[in-house]
Every structure is written in C-alpha cells, then in structure tokens.
Amino acid sequence: MSTEFDKPSLLQRIVPMFLGFDWVLLLLIALLSGLGLLAMYSAGYDHGTRFIDHGRNMLLAAAILFVVAQVPPQKIMFAAVPLYVLGIALLIAVLVFGITKKGAQRWVNVGVVIQPSELLKIAMPLMLAWWFQRREGATRVSDFVVAFGLLALPTALILKQPDLGTALLVLASGLAVIFFAGLSWKLVLPPVLLAAVGIVLLIWNGDALCMDGISWYFLHDYQRTRVCTLLDPMRDPLGKGFHIIQGMIAIGSGGIWGKGFMAGTQTHLEFIPERTTDFIFAAFSEEFGLVGNLVLITGFVLLVWRALAIALQATTLFGRLMAAAVAVIFFTYAFVNMGMVSGILPVVGLPLPFLSYGGTAMVTLGLALGILMSIARAQHLARRTAQHLARRTAQRSV
Fold first, then answer.
1. What residues does 107 pair with on adjacent strands?
2. Which long-range contacts (CB under 8 A, 24 or more apart) does 330-336 make?
3. Distance between CA 269 and CA 398 in Å, rounded?
4. Is 100 strand, coil or helix?
5. Which residues of 44-56 are buried (b: 16+ CB within 10 A; e: fewer)?
6. What is the pLDDT of residue 9?
7. In whole angstroms, how far apart are CA 390 and each of 314, 379, 382, 385, 387?
8. Do the beta carbons of residue 253 and residue 286 sit within 8 Å?
9. How many Cβ atoms sit within 10 Å of the Cβ of residue 230?
10. Which partner from 11, 144, 221, 271 sits 20 to 30 angstroms from 152, CA to CA?
C-alpha cells in the first residue's frame, strides 16, 4: 500500500530536470551574463529602468533555456516547419501593413507589437536542419537548390524592410547549415574569392564611389552612406561618422586596464550614442580596457567552441547542423557588433549577446541556447543508455 513516504520529494523531482546539462556551457553563459550585467549597470543605471529590465530579460531567457532543454531534439525538429511558415507569414504581414519606425518597416501588431525577423534567426536554421535530416545519406544537388530557395525567401523579405543586420544573421546561420550538410568547397570558394576581390576594389576606389551624386543601385542610400562613412569617418564627423569616431575614441581611451567601473567619461558624458544597445561594447572597452575585452572575447570564443564540440558529438544530423548553426549565430553576433563599434565593419545594428539591451534579442538567444542544451542532454542520455546496456550485457555473459 502506497503512503506519503513513497512519493518523491521536491528535490528528487527537480534533480532529473538538470540531468545531462552541459555544465561547461552553463559556466560560460554565467560568465558572459555577469559581464553583461556589469556593463549594463554602468551604461544604463541612469537610463531609466534599463538595468532592471536587462536583468528581467536575462531571467526570462534563462527560463526559456531551461524549458527548451527539457524537450528532446526530435520533438524540437517537429516545430521547424510551423515556425518557418509562421515567420514567413508574419514577414509578409510586415510588408503589407507593418509598423514603420525610424524609416524602417520591421514591426507588426498582432495584439502586441513584434519584430518577426527575430523569429527567423532560429526558424531558418531549424527549417534547413529539418530538411537535410529528412535526406540524410541521400543528399542530391536538387536538395541544396531547394535549401538555397528556403533561405533566399526570408532573407529577401527582411532586406525589403530594410534590415541588413538581421538579414546577414539569418543568411549566415542558413549558410552554415547548408555548408555543414555537405556543400562542396568547389561551390564555396568562388563566391568567397569574389567577395574578397569586391572588398579590395571598394577600398581602392572608395573616394570615387563615395562622391556626391554617385548612386549604388544594389544598396539603399543609407546603406551606401554607412559603407562610405566606414571608409572615411571624417567625411561627416558630426553627422554620420559620429558613431564610429566616438566608439573608437572610447575603445582607445580605455587603454590596457580601462578607466574603471562606472568611470568612463565618454559613456557617462553621453558621447557614445546607443550606449546601452548597439554600442555597449565601446562603453565596456572604455571602463575595462584591453584586459576586459580579452576576457569578453575569450568568453565568446569558448562559447562558440563549446557549441561546435556539442555539434561534433551530436547523435543525429539534425543535432549536428543545429548546434553548428547556433555556434555561427553567436560568432556572427559578436564579430559583427565588435567590428562595427571598432570601425572595421559598417554599422548594421546587431546587438552584442548578453551585453546589449533588448528583450526580443535576449529571448531569441535563450531559445538558441535551450536548443543547444537539449542537443547536449540527448548526447549525455544516449551515452548513459549505452553504458547501461553494456553493463547488463556483461552481467548476462557472466
């Protein structure tokens, strides 16, 4: 007869939920989250409720990570097609009757105002990973053609808004899945070499191409201005070049050790624009210097490395492709944000993970890390099952 004593305690019910968690990954997330809270407190303590909201967004992302980590990768895979279709439908809704802010039509009201392109950051690699999982061991050229088509549609819709930063991130994560699915190097190298030649020619002929009256038919005027400002920020030091110049001044003034926590003059005298969002890396660099930057960059490098390690050990093609895509997402976020703030890439409006303020972006990162943790748990549970079967087989043989 069962009694109250037969029921598992609360602790006994909670512990299995953490079984198989990748503790190295959690440690790296905790490190980057701590640095993010430090940076946001300094940059945003006098900026309304930014710090409190940032902490709340982190807790929400952590909750999403924990919940998604409980879902096996096989069940996550079933959500790929519905999420992709929903994302495309919402992007079309943005195109038809979206909300315009600061010259960009990126939002839609569905009871609450949302930015559908954020959904595609995860839905796109999920869809492609699902597509190649169904064709594991029998991938043909036509499968890659379909994959490029699936990638091109949302990328084009996001570029139409226009939102170059998000489009680049969606494109990068999608291309990562296609590449790791087995795309030949012969098809990868030509566009890479062509892009490199194009960049060299752009730098070489920058003065002529950026003259007034010259139009770039493949880019919007504001995008052309960003590229030209990158090539020569002093072209308009008090206007379009102000962001880049102030960012570089803040980074340089931090020196080796930095000016100290909450002692950044460029930050607190409000010379750094968007200091709690896109340009928070400049505020962080000013206060924590080269040493702080090396710690931050090392954290991101190790996070990408851990994601790739999980990808290598994944038990399914879907797990390998999705974990690799998450690694590329974090690399792209960090590299593009730090590059644009440092003046080596155009300003495209990508936040820095864990540091930049933004609820939607934080939720997306929590979802990505939750999927990565789910894949890691599946590996752990598969190893435990294999070890258990091996022990039972050994016992029977005895």
1. 99
2. 330/300, 330/303, 330/304, 330/368, 331/300, 331/304, 332/168, 332/169, 332/172, 332/173, 333/169, 334/297, 334/300, 336/165, 336/168, 336/169
3. 76
4. strand
5. beeeeebbebbbe
6. 66
7. 20, 16, 12, 9, 5
8. yes
9. 22
10. 221
Residue 72, token pair as written in the block? 């096996």
What letter represents residue 135's amino acid?
A: R
Q: Which is it for the CA torsion 92, 97, 102, 103, positive or negative? A: positive
- Of 134, 143, 124, which Cα lies nearest the Cα of 80? 124
User: What pLDDT digit, counting tens, does each position of 67-107 carry?
Assistant: 999 999 999 999 999 999 999 999 999 988 888 876 778 88
Peptide bond into 162 cis (omega under 30): yes
pLDDT, position 331: 94
**Cβ distance 99 to 107 under 8 Å?**
yes
Q: What is the DSSP letter of 351?
A: P
Residue 330 CA to its chain's centroid (Å):
4
- Cα dist from 337 to 77, 86, 90, 333, 346, whole Å: 30, 28, 26, 6, 10
CB atoms within 10 A of CB 216: 14
When computed from its CA atoms, the radius of gyration of the chain, rounded to whole angstroms, is 23
> In whole angstroms, how far apart are CA 46 and each of 41, 127, 267, 288?
9, 42, 11, 19
Q: Which helix (H) or strand (E) holds 107?
A: strand 104-109
pTM (2 decimals)? Answer: 0.87
